[in-house]
Model the fold of this input.
Amino acid sequence: MNKAGHGRDDCVLHRARVSVAVSLTAAISGMVLLVGALACLLVGQYHEYAVERSLNDAISCDEPAGEDPGVWLFVLSGEQWTGAGRVPPGLPLHDSMRAVASGGRPMEEAVEGNGTVYRVLTKRFGTEVRQVVLDESRQRRTRDGALAAVTVSGLTGLVVAVATGVMVARRALHPVARLLDRRCRFVEDASHELRAPLTRLHMRSQLLLQRADDLPEPLVTELRRMVADSRELGEVLDDMLRGARLRSDAPGDERVDLAEVAADLLGAEAGRLGERELVAVLETRAGPLVVLGVKSALRRMLSALVDNAIGHTPPRGRITVSVAAVDRGRTVELVVEDTGVGFDPAQHRVMFNRFVRGAAGRGHRFGMGLALAREVVESHGGTVVAAGRPGDGARFTVRLPAAPLRSH
Done:
């Protein structure tokens, strides 16, 4: 595992920590904001209640001004006006008192002046019409103080939410970080242990091929395939070691001709196809059949689909691999179709999961091939779907974005 791999893992872990911290912070902040909104609503309602109570208490008193300098009482009895001497300009509201005296309903109004707000309540009180004027300054100061306290508490809660989110994210992902570290060490050890025997196998197969001038052509062909397979095994090992790291970057920008990959793979599988008495056919259509990606990974994907078809097709069956450009050349479609045992459509949702195995497959099958194929396809920005019925074969369709045409 190189330093770049560690860096990508660290980057992914950092993003995971940030994601957990943000999610938890958002949840706690949402609760804090909800509680703060309810508190503000209660403060506003209490302010209105305090004003209403002060007005109703004052209107039943004869001399409220003597008890509270912020309250004035005016009385209209017949045509006689009585009230406090020094009152704010524009008060009392004579028109409101006349309207109530004429049989109107009680009136409650707000009047702005002198840098404050006056609440005015006018109602009939026995044979009189009374009007109470209340300066809301004191109630507003109380309300504003309560709102300031709620705001400070809310901001404190948000700071605590951020700190809690960061702390919980670090603690929650600490086991994951340790697991990744152990996995990195395992991959390094596996790379070291497997690289040497694979290199020796490849070199020995090459030496055998160089000394195979006097051997029959079928053996020479098999030796060539052994060299190619050992090289491919090394590429697969490299690809698996890369895949063991968290994927945080693009799969690659190599131009890969899927028709070429399919032809090469079917040639490599000729021996096994012959042993199973199977016929494999490659069909290609005119058009650009090139995609961007990692050739070894795409070959491994196709190998998994062909291996699945071989394992589920009885002798004298047929496997068809077709490659075509669709969607006006914007997509390359790869189809692997067989005349095998098929599968229950109900398995479609789980057949690409790891360790899911078909009941009718032959050979040592571990339920990993289709899962790895899907991972490769999705990492290349494509899709893979399966269709089939019991006894009627299976059809796997892979669609990948076509590589842009090269400019001349």
Residues 56 and 121 are 8 Å apart (CA to CA). The first helix runs from residue 3 to 59.
